[in-house]
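Sat 14:20. Reprocessing the chain from the morning session after the first attempt stalled halfway. Input below, unchanged.
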Amino acid sequence: MPEHDLVWEKRCLGRIKKGDMQAFGELYYAFSNRLFTRVLLPLLGDRAAAEDALAETFKTALEKIGTFEQKGVSVFHWLARIGKNKALDMHRARERTGRALCNFEGMLKPLLGDSPLPGNGLQAEEEGRRLREAVARVLDKLNPRYRKVIELRFLQDRSRKECAEMLELKLGTLDVLVLRALRAFRKEWEEQT
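Finished this time. Tokens:
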């Protein structure tokens, strides 16, 4: 990197550390596209997820800017490391959400209609009614946000994007909320059964 760019970065970082948000905007403008295209999008493979990670990267950078020491290296490397960590966090959250979702769907398979309930018609109908009542009792005990996300995502079968829009959340934040909601549901379910 040319020396004059490092000089500009040093001045910009100094202004940011003094609370100059315009300087932070300049830093964002200088590095966001490169960070998005070279680091986040290749790691996540999804434009919306990469946009979420980019926002989280710069949020974290702003919170921790006081800890950054330039040492003759571009701030881009520090931002890239933060971005990689955000992308890894998102991958981990997706994996945990996927596992929790499999458990949830397995537990409620008869209610979701993926397989018939065992027994004859009346017996199956009664078992289905009891299952729906048990699910309703568990949902009633959950935090309202958790209940809402489970109802939207699983009982109404809405897409992640729809749920995020309806709850006014970013997709990454929705994934975390779904994971927490499924964990809370499972805990309450196990206590009741």
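The chain is about 80% helix and 0% strand.
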